Amino acid sequence: MKFRSLIAAAVVLLILAGVLYWSEHRKTPESTASTTSTSPAILKIDPAAVTSLIVKQKGAQPVTLVRSGAQWQISSPGTFPADSSTISGMLSSLAPLNSESVVEDHATNLAEFGLSDPSMELDLTSKDNKTSRLLLGDDAPTGDGVYVSLGGDPRVFTASSSIKTSLSKSLTDLRDKRLLPIDASSVSSIDLIRKGDDIGLARVQNGWQIEKPHPYRTDNFQVDDLLQQLTSAKWDVSASSEDAAKIFAHATPVATVKLTGSSGDETLDLRKDKDDSYATSSAIGGTWKVDSTNASALGQALGHSLDDFRNKEVFDFGFSDPDKVEYHSGPTTIVLTHTGKDWFSDGKKMDEDSAEMVATTLRDLSATKFVDSGFTTPLIEITVTSGGGKKVERVEMQRVGDGAIAKREDDSSLYSLDAATLNSLTTSIAGLKSAAPAKKK
What we know:
Elements: H1 2-25, H2 29-36, E1 41-43, E2 50-57, E3 63-68, E4 71-76, E5 80-81, H3 84-92, E6 97-98, E7 101-104, E8 120-126, E9 131-139, E10 145-150, E11 156-160, H4 162-167, H5 171-174, E12 187-194, E13 197-204, E14 207-212, H6 220-232, H7 241-248, E15 252-261, E16 264-273, E17 276-281, E18 287-289, H8 292-302, H9 306-309, E19 324-329, E20 332-339, E21 342-345, E22 348-349, H10 352-364, E23 369-371, E24 380-386, E25 391-400, E26 403-408, E27 414-417, H11 419-430
Antiparallel strand pairs: 1-6, 2-3, 2-8, 3-4, 4-5, 7-11, 8-9, 9-10, 10-11, 12-13, 12-15, 13-14, 15-16, 16-17, 17-18, 19-20, 19-24, 20-21, 21-22, 23-27, 24-25, 25-26, 26-27
Helix pairs in contact: 6-8, 10-11
Protein backbone atom coordinates (compact mmCIF):
# COMPACT_ATOMS: atom_id res chain seq x y z
CA MET A 1 0.00 0.00 0.00
CA LYS A 2 2.78 2.33 0.96
CA PHE A 3 4.60 1.40 -2.24
CA ARG A 4 1.57 2.37 -4.38
CA SER A 5 1.26 5.73 -2.58
CA LEU A 6 4.91 6.40 -3.24
CA ILE A 7 4.48 5.66 -6.96
CA ALA A 8 1.40 7.92 -7.16
CA ALA A 9 3.26 10.76 -5.48
CA ALA A 10 6.16 10.38 -7.88
CA VAL A 11 3.81 10.51 -10.88
CA VAL A 12 2.14 13.65 -9.56
CA LEU A 13 5.53 15.27 -8.98
CA LEU A 14 6.62 14.48 -12.55
CA ILE A 15 3.40 15.93 -13.94
CA LEU A 16 3.82 19.14 -11.93
CA ALA A 17 7.42 19.48 -13.03
CA GLY A 18 6.39 19.09 -16.64
CA VAL A 19 3.66 21.70 -16.34
CA LEU A 20 6.06 24.14 -14.71
CA TYR A 21 8.64 23.61 -17.44
CA TRP A 22 6.01 24.00 -20.17
CA SER A 23 4.60 27.19 -18.66
CA GLU A 24 8.02 28.79 -18.33
CA HIS A 25 9.33 27.89 -21.77
CA ARG A 26 6.25 27.94 -23.97
CA LYS A 27 5.99 31.09 -26.16
CA THR A 28 2.61 31.94 -27.58
CA PRO A 29 2.48 33.48 -31.05
CA GLU A 30 1.50 36.77 -29.41
CA SER A 31 4.47 36.85 -27.06
CA THR A 32 6.81 35.86 -29.87
CA ALA A 33 5.49 38.70 -32.00
CA SER A 34 5.88 41.14 -29.13
CA THR A 35 9.49 40.10 -28.57
CA THR A 36 10.49 40.38 -32.19
CA SER A 37 8.92 43.81 -32.49
CA THR A 38 10.22 45.31 -29.25
CA SER A 39 10.62 49.09 -29.55
CA PRO A 40 10.39 49.36 -33.34
CA ALA A 41 11.30 52.68 -34.90
CA ILE A 42 8.24 54.83 -35.61
CA LEU A 43 10.10 57.11 -37.98
CA LYS A 44 13.63 57.41 -39.33
CA ILE A 45 14.74 60.55 -41.13
CA ASP A 46 17.94 62.11 -42.40
CA PRO A 47 17.81 65.64 -40.91
CA ALA A 48 19.96 66.99 -43.72
CA ALA A 49 17.46 65.73 -46.32
CA VAL A 50 14.41 67.49 -44.84
CA THR A 51 13.46 70.51 -46.93
CA SER A 52 10.27 71.64 -45.21
CA LEU A 53 8.07 70.91 -42.23
CA ILE A 54 4.70 72.04 -40.98
CA VAL A 55 4.10 72.19 -37.22
CA LYS A 56 0.42 71.95 -36.25
CA GLN A 57 -0.53 72.47 -32.62
CA LYS A 58 -4.11 72.12 -31.47
CA GLY A 59 -5.65 75.57 -31.08
CA ALA A 60 -2.84 77.38 -32.93
CA GLN A 61 -2.13 78.36 -36.51
CA PRO A 62 0.07 75.91 -38.39
CA VAL A 63 3.68 77.04 -38.81
CA THR A 64 5.37 76.26 -42.12
CA LEU A 65 9.16 76.18 -42.30
CA VAL A 66 11.31 75.85 -45.40
CA ARG A 67 15.03 75.29 -45.70
CA SER A 68 17.11 77.88 -47.52
CA GLY A 69 20.65 76.56 -47.80
CA ALA A 70 21.88 75.94 -44.29
CA GLN A 71 19.24 78.23 -42.78
CA TRP A 72 15.52 77.88 -42.13
CA GLN A 73 12.78 80.39 -42.85
CA ILE A 74 9.21 80.60 -41.56
CA SER A 75 6.89 81.12 -44.53
CA SER A 76 3.53 80.92 -42.72
CA PRO A 77 1.63 82.39 -40.86
CA GLY A 78 4.10 85.19 -41.65
CA THR A 79 7.57 85.52 -43.09
CA PHE A 80 10.22 85.40 -40.36
CA PRO A 81 13.76 84.13 -39.90
CA ALA A 82 13.64 80.78 -38.09
CA ASP A 83 15.75 79.51 -35.22
CA SER A 84 17.83 76.92 -37.06
CA SER A 85 19.22 75.40 -33.86
CA THR A 86 15.70 74.71 -32.54
CA ILE A 87 14.71 73.06 -35.81
CA SER A 88 17.89 70.99 -35.85
CA GLY A 89 17.01 69.75 -32.37
CA MET A 90 13.52 68.76 -33.53
CA LEU A 91 14.84 66.84 -36.51
CA SER A 92 17.54 65.13 -34.44
CA SER A 93 14.83 63.66 -32.18
CA LEU A 94 13.40 61.90 -35.26
CA ALA A 95 16.63 60.30 -36.41
CA PRO A 96 15.22 57.87 -35.39
CA LEU A 97 12.08 58.18 -33.25
CA ASN A 98 11.83 54.87 -31.40
CA SER A 99 8.68 53.52 -29.81
CA GLU A 100 8.31 52.10 -26.31
CA SER A 101 5.67 49.63 -27.42
CA VAL A 102 3.13 48.76 -30.12
CA VAL A 103 -0.32 49.28 -28.63
CA GLU A 104 -2.31 48.06 -31.64
CA ASP A 105 -1.13 46.56 -34.91
CA HIS A 106 -4.29 47.54 -36.79
CA ALA A 107 -5.98 50.43 -35.01
CA THR A 108 -9.55 51.11 -36.13
CA ASN A 109 -10.48 53.80 -33.61
CA LEU A 110 -7.80 56.50 -33.44
CA ALA A 111 -10.04 58.66 -31.25
CA GLU A 112 -9.45 56.15 -28.46
CA PHE A 113 -5.85 57.35 -28.34
CA GLY A 114 -6.48 61.05 -29.02
CA LEU A 115 -5.09 60.64 -32.54
CA SER A 116 -8.18 61.51 -34.61
CA ASP A 117 -7.81 65.09 -33.35
CA PRO A 118 -4.14 65.05 -32.31
CA SER A 119 -2.60 67.50 -29.87
CA MET A 120 0.22 67.92 -32.35
CA GLU A 121 0.99 67.02 -35.97
CA LEU A 122 4.28 67.30 -37.80
CA ASP A 123 4.41 67.03 -41.59
CA LEU A 124 7.86 66.60 -43.12
CA THR A 125 8.99 66.72 -46.75
CA SER A 126 12.41 65.52 -47.88
CA LYS A 127 14.52 66.20 -50.97
CA ASP A 128 12.94 63.27 -52.84
CA ASN A 129 9.47 64.80 -52.16
CA LYS A 130 8.66 61.97 -49.76
CA THR A 131 6.33 63.14 -47.00
CA SER A 132 5.84 61.87 -43.46
CA ARG A 133 2.91 62.73 -41.20
CA LEU A 134 3.55 62.22 -37.50
CA LEU A 135 0.72 62.49 -34.96
CA LEU A 136 0.97 62.88 -31.18
CA GLY A 137 -2.14 62.01 -29.17
CA ASP A 138 -3.07 61.57 -25.52
CA ASP A 139 -0.69 60.66 -22.73
CA ALA A 140 -0.70 56.93 -22.05
CA PRO A 141 -2.53 56.06 -18.78
CA THR A 142 0.47 54.14 -17.45
CA GLY A 143 4.14 54.97 -17.66
CA ASP A 144 5.72 58.10 -19.02
CA GLY A 145 4.55 57.83 -22.60
CA VAL A 146 2.39 59.37 -25.30
CA TYR A 147 0.37 57.74 -28.08
CA VAL A 148 1.93 58.20 -31.52
CA SER A 149 0.96 57.18 -35.05
CA LEU A 150 2.45 57.69 -38.48
CA GLY A 151 0.38 58.45 -41.56
CA GLY A 152 0.04 55.31 -43.72
CA ASP A 153 0.99 52.99 -40.84
CA PRO A 154 -1.98 51.18 -39.18
CA ARG A 155 -0.12 50.77 -35.90
CA VAL A 156 -0.46 52.87 -32.76
CA PHE A 157 2.66 53.22 -30.65
CA THR A 158 3.67 54.66 -27.34
CA ALA A 159 6.81 56.80 -27.25
CA SER A 160 8.57 58.66 -24.50
CA SER A 161 6.66 61.80 -23.55
CA SER A 162 9.92 63.71 -24.03
CA ILE A 163 9.09 63.74 -27.73
CA LYS A 164 6.35 66.24 -26.91
CA THR A 165 8.93 68.63 -25.50
CA SER A 166 11.16 68.14 -28.53
CA LEU A 167 8.48 68.68 -31.17
CA SER A 168 5.71 70.81 -29.68
CA LYS A 169 7.04 74.23 -30.63
CA SER A 170 5.03 77.42 -30.94
CA LEU A 171 5.59 80.15 -33.52
CA THR A 172 7.60 82.08 -30.91
CA ASP A 173 9.72 79.01 -30.17
CA LEU A 174 10.49 78.58 -33.85
CA ARG A 175 11.34 82.19 -34.63
CA ASP A 176 14.92 83.44 -34.63
CA LYS A 177 14.86 85.76 -31.63
CA ARG A 178 17.83 87.84 -32.71
CA LEU A 179 17.01 91.46 -33.47
CA LEU A 180 19.44 91.32 -36.41
CA PRO A 181 19.56 87.68 -37.57
CA ILE A 182 22.55 88.26 -39.82
CA ASP A 183 25.76 86.32 -40.37
CA ALA A 184 28.35 88.65 -38.83
CA SER A 185 31.03 87.50 -41.28
CA SER A 186 28.93 88.77 -44.20
CA VAL A 187 28.80 92.35 -42.88
CA SER A 188 31.00 94.68 -44.95
CA SER A 189 30.26 98.00 -43.24
CA ILE A 190 28.72 99.47 -40.11
CA ASP A 191 27.26 102.96 -39.76
CA LEU A 192 26.77 104.04 -36.15
CA ILE A 193 24.61 107.15 -35.93
CA ARG A 194 24.08 109.03 -32.68
CA LYS A 195 23.15 112.57 -31.77
CA GLY A 196 25.87 114.75 -33.31
CA ASP A 197 28.03 111.72 -34.00
CA ASP A 198 28.31 109.51 -37.07
CA ILE A 199 30.94 106.77 -37.24
CA GLY A 200 31.49 104.77 -40.42
CA LEU A 201 33.36 101.46 -40.26
CA ALA A 202 34.37 99.36 -43.26
CA ARG A 203 35.77 95.84 -43.37
CA VAL A 204 39.23 95.67 -44.93
CA GLN A 205 41.66 92.85 -45.62
CA ASN A 206 43.11 92.64 -42.13
CA GLY A 207 40.15 93.79 -40.05
CA TRP A 208 38.35 97.13 -39.95
CA GLN A 209 38.94 100.73 -40.97
CA ILE A 210 37.27 103.85 -39.60
CA GLU A 211 36.13 105.88 -42.60
CA LYS A 212 33.94 108.52 -40.93
CA PRO A 213 34.38 111.16 -39.68
CA HIS A 214 38.01 110.67 -40.87
CA PRO A 215 40.15 107.69 -41.84
CA TYR A 216 41.77 106.28 -38.69
CA ARG A 217 43.59 103.13 -37.70
CA THR A 218 41.05 100.94 -35.97
CA ASP A 219 40.85 98.71 -32.91
CA ASN A 220 39.56 95.52 -34.56
CA PHE A 221 38.62 93.96 -31.24
CA GLN A 222 36.24 96.79 -30.36
CA VAL A 223 34.53 96.69 -33.77
CA ASP A 224 34.23 92.91 -33.69
CA ASP A 225 32.66 93.18 -30.24
CA LEU A 226 30.18 95.77 -31.51
CA LEU A 227 29.21 93.52 -34.41
CA GLN A 228 28.91 90.51 -32.10
CA GLN A 229 26.59 92.39 -29.76
CA LEU A 230 24.44 93.61 -32.66
CA THR A 231 24.03 90.19 -34.28
CA SER A 232 23.45 88.27 -31.03
CA ALA A 233 21.06 90.60 -29.14
CA LYS A 234 17.60 89.06 -28.80
CA TRP A 235 14.10 90.33 -28.19
CA ASP A 236 12.26 89.52 -24.97
CA VAL A 237 9.69 86.79 -25.66
CA SER A 238 7.68 87.77 -22.57
CA ALA A 239 6.91 91.31 -23.86
CA SER A 240 4.44 91.99 -26.65
CA SER A 241 5.47 93.99 -29.69
CA GLU A 242 2.46 96.27 -29.23
CA ASP A 243 3.46 97.22 -25.66
CA ALA A 244 7.05 97.73 -26.75
CA ALA A 245 5.94 100.11 -29.51
CA LYS A 246 4.08 102.31 -27.03
CA ILE A 247 7.13 102.65 -24.79
CA PHE A 248 9.53 103.06 -27.72
CA ALA A 249 7.56 106.10 -28.92
CA HIS A 250 8.61 108.21 -25.91
CA ALA A 251 11.89 106.47 -24.96
CA THR A 252 15.29 108.20 -25.18
CA PRO A 253 17.22 107.55 -28.43
CA VAL A 254 20.53 105.74 -27.97
CA ALA A 255 21.74 104.97 -31.49
CA THR A 256 20.75 103.93 -34.97
CA VAL A 257 22.91 101.31 -36.67
CA LYS A 258 22.97 100.27 -40.31
CA LEU A 259 24.68 97.04 -41.28
CA THR A 260 25.52 96.44 -44.93
CA GLY A 261 26.11 92.87 -46.00
CA SER A 262 25.79 90.41 -48.83
CA SER A 263 21.99 90.47 -48.58
CA GLY A 264 21.64 94.26 -48.41
CA ASP A 265 21.14 96.80 -45.62
CA GLU A 266 19.50 96.21 -42.23
CA THR A 267 18.84 98.89 -39.62
CA LEU A 268 18.45 98.76 -35.85
CA ASP A 269 17.17 101.71 -33.83
CA LEU A 270 17.77 101.45 -30.07
CA ARG A 271 16.12 103.52 -27.35
CA LYS A 272 16.21 103.47 -23.56
CA ASP A 273 13.37 103.78 -21.04
CA LYS A 274 14.56 103.69 -17.42
CA ASP A 275 16.46 100.39 -17.09
CA ASP A 276 14.97 98.76 -20.18
CA SER A 277 15.95 98.96 -23.85
CA TYR A 278 13.65 98.85 -26.86
CA ALA A 279 14.42 98.48 -30.53
CA THR A 280 12.99 98.47 -34.01
CA SER A 281 14.64 96.24 -36.58
CA SER A 282 14.20 96.23 -40.35
CA ALA A 283 15.29 92.59 -40.38
CA ILE A 284 12.31 91.27 -38.41
CA GLY A 285 9.83 94.16 -38.41
CA GLY A 286 7.94 95.49 -35.41
CA THR A 287 9.14 97.00 -32.15
CA TRP A 288 10.66 94.88 -29.42
CA LYS A 289 11.90 94.97 -25.87
CA VAL A 290 15.54 93.90 -25.78
CA ASP A 291 16.17 90.79 -23.71
CA SER A 292 17.76 91.82 -20.41
CA THR A 293 20.62 89.34 -20.89
CA ASN A 294 21.77 91.34 -23.94
CA ALA A 295 20.61 94.89 -23.24
CA SER A 296 23.52 96.03 -21.07
CA ALA A 297 26.29 94.72 -23.34
CA LEU A 298 24.53 96.05 -26.44
CA GLY A 299 24.06 99.49 -24.91
CA GLN A 300 27.69 99.60 -23.81
CA ALA A 301 28.96 98.64 -27.27
CA LEU A 302 26.77 101.27 -28.93
CA GLY A 303 27.92 103.87 -26.41
CA HIS A 304 31.60 103.67 -27.35
CA SER A 305 33.14 106.93 -28.43
CA LEU A 306 35.06 107.40 -31.65
CA ASP A 307 38.33 107.14 -29.73
CA ASP A 308 37.22 103.78 -28.28
CA PHE A 309 37.18 102.39 -31.83
CA ARG A 310 40.59 103.86 -32.73
CA ASN A 311 43.74 101.79 -32.49
CA LYS A 312 45.84 103.21 -29.65
CA GLU A 313 48.82 100.94 -30.25
CA VAL A 314 51.66 102.89 -31.82
CA PHE A 315 53.16 99.91 -33.70
CA ASP A 316 51.41 97.12 -35.60
CA PHE A 317 54.03 94.38 -35.84
CA GLY A 318 52.10 92.21 -33.39
CA PHE A 319 53.42 89.20 -31.53
CA SER A 320 56.17 88.23 -33.94
CA ASP A 321 59.59 89.71 -33.29
CA PRO A 322 60.65 92.47 -35.68
CA ASP A 323 63.43 91.92 -38.19
CA LYS A 324 65.04 95.29 -37.52
CA VAL A 325 64.73 98.19 -35.06
CA GLU A 326 66.32 101.59 -35.72
CA TYR A 327 66.35 104.13 -32.88
CA HIS A 328 67.54 107.73 -33.27
CA SER A 329 67.51 110.36 -30.55
CA GLY A 330 69.96 113.24 -30.72
CA PRO A 331 73.48 111.76 -30.89
CA THR A 332 72.21 108.27 -30.02
CA THR A 333 71.68 105.85 -32.88
CA ILE A 334 71.01 102.18 -32.32
CA VAL A 335 70.31 99.61 -35.02
CA LEU A 336 69.20 96.16 -33.94
CA THR A 337 68.87 93.29 -36.40
CA HIS A 338 67.23 90.00 -35.62
CA THR A 339 68.28 86.66 -37.13
CA GLY A 340 66.80 83.48 -35.77
CA LYS A 341 67.09 83.78 -31.99
CA ASP A 342 70.02 86.17 -32.11
CA TRP A 343 70.12 89.97 -32.03
CA PHE A 344 72.99 92.03 -33.40
CA SER A 345 74.08 95.69 -33.31
CA ASP A 346 77.13 97.08 -35.09
CA GLY A 347 78.21 93.52 -35.85
CA LYS A 348 78.11 92.53 -32.18
CA LYS A 349 75.83 89.90 -30.74
CA MET A 350 73.52 91.46 -28.18
CA ASP A 351 72.19 90.10 -24.93
CA GLU A 352 68.98 88.35 -25.93
CA ASP A 353 66.94 89.42 -22.90
CA SER A 354 67.81 93.10 -23.24
CA ALA A 355 67.06 93.10 -26.99
CA GLU A 356 63.75 91.27 -26.44
CA MET A 357 62.87 93.91 -23.83
CA VAL A 358 63.21 96.63 -26.48
CA ALA A 359 60.95 94.68 -28.88
CA THR A 360 58.38 94.07 -26.14
CA THR A 361 58.37 97.73 -25.10
CA LEU A 362 57.79 98.87 -28.68
CA ARG A 363 55.03 96.30 -29.10
CA ASP A 364 53.30 97.58 -25.95
CA LEU A 365 53.57 101.30 -26.72
CA SER A 366 49.99 102.53 -26.46
CA ALA A 367 48.38 105.94 -26.23
CA THR A 368 46.35 106.96 -23.21
CA LYS A 369 44.39 109.28 -25.48
CA PHE A 370 44.52 111.13 -28.79
CA VAL A 371 45.32 114.83 -29.06
CA ASP A 372 44.77 117.38 -31.82
CA SER A 373 47.93 119.46 -31.44
CA GLY A 374 51.27 119.83 -29.65
CA PHE A 375 53.46 117.94 -32.12
CA THR A 376 56.06 120.34 -33.53
CA THR A 377 59.66 119.22 -33.06
CA PRO A 378 60.20 115.45 -32.76
CA LEU A 379 63.33 114.39 -30.92
CA ILE A 380 63.00 110.60 -31.24
CA GLU A 381 62.59 108.57 -34.42
CA ILE A 382 61.96 104.81 -34.44
CA THR A 383 61.68 102.57 -37.49
CA VAL A 384 60.53 98.95 -37.11
CA THR A 385 60.81 96.48 -39.99
CA SER A 386 58.89 93.20 -39.75
CA GLY A 387 57.30 90.48 -41.85
CA GLY A 388 60.48 89.62 -43.70
CA GLY A 389 61.00 93.23 -44.71
CA LYS A 390 57.46 93.67 -46.08
CA LYS A 391 56.23 95.94 -43.28
CA VAL A 392 58.03 99.15 -42.35
CA GLU A 393 56.65 101.43 -39.61
CA ARG A 394 58.19 104.84 -38.88
CA VAL A 395 57.22 106.76 -35.76
CA GLU A 396 58.39 110.15 -34.51
CA MET A 397 58.08 111.28 -30.89
CA GLN A 398 58.21 114.61 -29.15
CA ARG A 399 58.60 114.97 -25.41
CA VAL A 400 55.75 116.92 -23.80
CA GLY A 401 56.05 117.40 -20.06
CA ASP A 402 56.75 114.02 -18.48
CA GLY A 403 55.30 112.17 -21.44
CA ALA A 404 55.39 112.38 -25.20
CA ILE A 405 53.34 112.71 -28.37
CA ALA A 406 53.92 110.12 -31.10
CA LYS A 407 53.02 110.29 -34.77
CA ARG A 408 53.16 107.53 -37.36
CA GLU A 409 54.42 108.30 -40.85
CA ASP A 410 51.27 106.83 -42.44
CA ASP A 411 48.73 108.39 -40.07
CA SER A 412 47.74 111.91 -39.07
CA SER A 413 46.72 110.82 -35.55
CA LEU A 414 48.66 112.14 -32.56
CA TYR A 415 49.17 109.54 -29.83
CA SER A 416 49.59 110.89 -26.30
CA LEU A 417 51.95 108.72 -24.22
CA ASP A 418 52.10 109.06 -20.46
CA ALA A 419 55.30 109.27 -18.40
CA ALA A 420 55.32 105.57 -17.49
CA THR A 421 55.10 104.55 -21.16
CA LEU A 422 57.89 106.90 -22.19
CA ASN A 423 60.09 105.80 -19.26
CA SER A 424 59.65 102.12 -20.21
CA LEU A 425 60.92 102.92 -23.68
CA THR A 426 63.95 104.93 -22.60
CA THR A 427 64.80 102.38 -19.89
CA SER A 428 64.73 99.47 -22.35
CA ILE A 429 66.99 101.38 -24.77
CA ALA A 430 69.42 102.25 -21.98
CA GLY A 431 69.41 98.62 -20.83
CA LEU A 432 70.68 97.22 -24.13
CA LYS A 433 73.96 95.37 -23.70
CA SER A 434 76.24 93.05 -25.57
CA ALA A 435 76.01 89.32 -25.05
CA ALA A 436 78.37 87.84 -22.45
CA PRO A 437 81.50 86.25 -23.95
CA ALA A 438 81.19 82.52 -24.53
CA LYS A 439 82.84 80.50 -21.79
CA LYS A 440 86.07 78.78 -22.76
CA LYS A 441 85.91 75.01 -22.72
